[in-house]
Specification:
By secondary structure, this protein is α/β, with parallel strands linked by helices. The chain is 38% helix and 17% strand. The protein is built from twelve helices and ten strands. Helix 8 links the parallel strand 7 and strand 8. The N terminus is likely disordered. The site of one 2-acetamido-2-deoxy-beta-D-glucopyranose has 3 residues, from loops.
Length: 394
């Protein structure tokens, strides 16, 4: 990007009235085409993914931490046999630091960057990581570089490693568990009051507009009757993003997120489904899918004394295996062929909503200075300078 481009982008951001919105997901996706199941054969792809995320986080001006942990997995992703090994995982954490020690201050946005060895590594969950990176990018751009917003509260972006819950026959604790239990809890001073909530992006690209592309089970009906009926009545289309929460504890977080998702609703062919889990539902694959996601480590957290403490979290998902396989009817498709405009736009909407949610909640829109181009020149130059500095710093 040259300086003129930067200047133009800043200007575009200045006039958009909302936020600087040059969302570019595609640039990140090719890093996540290949399998990242944590076995020796996949070391190169795992390291490439990890380096990429770290570099982007630091390029976006975040303070980068790595949290290493050991866990056990079955070397066969199908879960056959009993060849269990210890593997080391690395959660990558990018902090946008502001005030932490205040009620509801800290917000986490997280996504898994490994893959389960069986499902498509781009859909599960490369697209979620690409979205995470773009949210970090657009949020930082608005709070640092464009000067339109000022950060108020600390936001933490985290790419989780080794989600053993998504694996078959692997009993070790997943990266998300280690993050909440031994990193986040300390970071928020071992008090839930400083924690505002987490947004988990887990499989968010598979949108489908044909009838019967969404699987509906009895368990689905028991757990989410409202959504079940709406989806069934409209031909069982997989044309929604599920926002799953566990109980009343998430109501504020949910409202803040859905308000921002629905801002450009009229233009959309897809929608957000507010799905609150009713406790005590029967065991069903849909529940298994939800408890495999990282949101569960927030919902079921227990402190050092074993006291349960519910940390608010929402799970954003296309419902993964409950939706028709994106490769159906396209068995010879290359990964890049699956990146349709339709799918990118669906992920894009999640990026826009999450970024707006963060800007609303974690930052403050500064009063406009002068609105003509000439008077915003110093800020353009500042931005250009900062971008150069960030580049030199890499
Ligand atoms: C994981 O296990 C290996 C081998 O035992 C050890 O070298 C490494 O330090 C461990 N890592 C962590 C984070 O405990
Ligand atoms: C957020 O930051 C802005 C700019 O520094 C400040 O004016 C405002 O009072 C802060 N708001 C809160 C809620 O802390
Ligand atoms: C899709 O389902 C809806 C609602 O059940 C129905 O009205 C419509 O005719 C179906 N469309 C096709 C192409 O089958
Ligand atoms: C993503 O959203 C931004 C902002 O609305 C828009 O400029 C861009 O064209 C979108 N990209 C895709 C692939 O839909």
């Amino acid at each position: 990007m040259n300086l003129v481009t930067v200047a133009l982008l800043v200007l575009a951001g200045t006039v958009s009235g909302d936020f600087f919105a040059e969302v570019d997901l595609k640039q990140h996706m090719e890093t996540f085409f290949k399998d990242r199941y944590p076995i020796e054969d996949n070391r190169p792809t795992r390291e490439a993914a990890r380096e990429y995320i770290k570099n982007k986080f630091s390029y976006y001006g975040l303070e980068v931490h790595e949290q290493k942990f050991n866990t056990t997995i079955n070397t066969d992703p199908r879960g056959f046999g009993s060849n269990t090994v210890t593997v080391e995982g690395t959660n990558i954490i990018g902090i946008k630091k502001a005030i932490t020690q205040q009620a509801d201050a800290v917000v986490v946005v997280g996504a898994d960057y490994d893959s389960n060895g069986l499902s498509d590594p781009l859909f599960y969950n490369g697209a979620g990581v690409a979205a995470l990176l773009e949210v970090a990018h657009v949020y930082s751009f608005n709070t640092d570089w464009s000067g339109r917003f000022a950060d108020n509260f600390t936001t933490i972006f985290v790419a989780f490693d080794i989600n053993t819950k998504h694996y078959k026959g692997s009993s070790g604790h997943p990266g998300g568990y280690h993050f909440v239990k031994t990193w986040l809890w300390d970071y928020i001073g071992k008090t839930p009051s400083f924690f505002g909530g987490a947004v988990i992006l887990d499989s968010i690209m598979n949108v489908q507009y044909e009838n019967k592309t969404q699987t509906l089970t009895t368990g689905f009906n028991n757990l989410f009757p409202g959504t079940y009926k709406r989806v069934l009545d409209s031909g069982a289309k997989g044309n929604f993003l599920a926002m799953v929460s566990s109980s009343g504890a998430e109501s504020k977080l949910k409202d803040q997120f859905s308000g921002n998702y629905n801002k450009d609703r009229q233009r959309q062919r897809y929608r957000l489904e507010d799905m609150v889990m009713i406790n005590g539902g029967t065991m069903d694959p849909i529940i298994e899918l939800i408890v495999e996601s990282d949101s569960v480590h927030f919902w079921t957290f227990t402190d050092d004394m074993g006291e349960p403490i519910h940390l608010p979290a929402i799970l954003l998902t296309d419902t993964a295996s409950f939706r028709s396989n994106p490769k159906d009817g396209c068995s010879t498709c290359r990964p890049v062929d699956l990146l349709t405009e339709e799918r990118l736009e669906f992920v894009n909407a999640t990026v826009r909503a999450t970024t707006r949610f963060l800007l609303d909640r974690q930052a403050t829109l500064l009063p406009p200075k002068e609105s003509n181009a000439v008077s915003s020149l110093p800020s353009i130059l500042m931005t250009a300078l900062m971008m150069c500095l960030v580049r030199l710093n890499k």
